[in-house]
Give the backbone structure.
Amino acid sequence: MFNKQIHKRIKVVLLIIIICFIVIIGKVFYIQVIDYKKLSNLASNLWSRNLVIGANRGRIITKDNVTVADNLTTVSLVVVPNQIKNKDDVIKDLAKILNVDESKISEHVNKSSSIEIVHPEGRQLSFDIADQINNLNYEGVYLLKEGKRYYPYDTLLSHTIGYAGIDNQGLSGLELKYDEYLTGKSGAIKYFSDAKGNKLDKSSVYEEPTNGMDIYLTIDYDIQSSVERELNNIMDKYDADDAWSIVMDPNNGEILAISSKPDFSPTNYQNYSIETINRNHAIWATYEPGSTFKIITLAASIEEKTVDLLNDTFTDSGSITVDGARIKCWKSGGHGTQTYLQVVQNSCNPGFVSLGNKLGKEKLFKYINDFGFGKKTGIDLNGESSGILFKINNVGPVELATTSFGQGISVSAIQQITAVSATINGGTLYKPYVVKRIVEPNTGEIIKENKPQIVRKVISNETSQTVRMALETVVAYGTGRNAYIEGYRVGGKTGTAQKVNNGIYMSGNYILSFIGFLPADNPQVVVYVAIDNPKGITQYGGTVAAPIAKNIMLDIIDKLKIEKSDYTLEKVYNWYDTKYETIPNVIGQELSEAKKQLKNFTVNYSGSGNIIKSISPSPNTILPVNSTIKVLLGD
């Protein structure tokens, strides 16, 4: 009996020992095989150190391959406090080179950290300063490559591009919206140290940084430059409060140019207020559109067949009374009896009130919504506004009347140009966009690509054709004459909108606008320009905004190589209009014959002979009548 109990206890002890061995062997197997990599990395991290090498952000490039956001290679200062032996000397010398107080450097050198970035005193240093630091040859003092964002064209496209901070993070505009694509992956120099931070002799490991993705825009650099130039000129000339412009391809929603003034320098963003940086008026500002909105009422009326532009007439006495409210025409005494096509040409408010009444509020507001007003267009930029429309239940006779000619509602420039593009491109509303594609810079692989996106079909091709015809007559015969270009078919509409402050219309303070397109028979481009409160000039969209749009369109004609039209409407001139002529190609002709063709210009002749050898400016240049040109004669 006693022996049996001993044997039983021995077996229990042996079983316990066996189980313990199995657990130990299992744990060793787990550590050595299953969890080896993790534990090895943890152990390695205890004695390895990383000196970070920053990656470059991806570039931002226009559709014509101009880089508008690039990178400069700079260096930054990093110290490893435990490796610095003569700290007083290091502090003194670094402070002298960086031109900062020694206490600033002392904070970094004496900090209890394994690696200390000298920020901001030692960030993005010039190569001259970096060489001075490098020549010190101090142990524990390192210079590392770092990319610095570079904007070669300074303020150009600034609200759209945005800016990146000192740590190369996107903070506004495309830099912020596409930051995950633009941001690269940092590399590092890995070295090994003991517990005190002293560098070991073991070899260092270099991990190469990976640069960010490149972004290609729909923006055309030359067209953008034209827009920037014209807006800068108008801001200087008329001391305007603000100005903005958008150029769009109406057939796909691509934005060819977009600008807002005042702008800012992304390189020196610290010198500007957040309001200036974030207020991209082209997509953010909402305001009463004025007469440019009449294009929507016109398109809806034609589509619903509530008016015959050529045969129906309206008599304008100078005002119209709606539910006790008197709505005036801009022309004192009115325009008298006119066809509705003339109502469009003359931008007659009472005439458009009549068109709104013929449609009724349900139909008019249906088209307003279908054309995209009252909601964001979805453009791939931050800060877009929705605008403000009347709720249909709150629309009475007066609200219907004022909406029909663009008063009492609030819209944005991007909504207007997108909607008007739909009225003249055959009736299709497109979603606007500025980013064409995102590309991996080394392989050229397209990571993401934006393609034209149809929102909806709003009006018929036939209605769109009639709208184009009507707006072409506005430029030839009506309020848009200052946008007329000899030899080209241009359509458009002016806008003069009184500004509102605290619910009260401001006196003598207007937003003047013009929206134009060409060629009118087959539009390739739409241009929208708005000027906020220009001073020292009669405030009408036709006198201020239309000439700016014309200058932009002249540059677009050259850029896109738009051919002259065989058929154009003959402009009806007022006495104050500037007339333009195209310089004929008289090179090689006899003097007597050339004089007949140059009769509309003031000609300065030089040289001798009877044959035209050269002419300046060159043939086919469009100039105001009586402009001076130079002609060289020869045999």
Q: What stands out?
A: The chain has a mean pLDDT of 87. The chain has 20 helices and 30 strands.
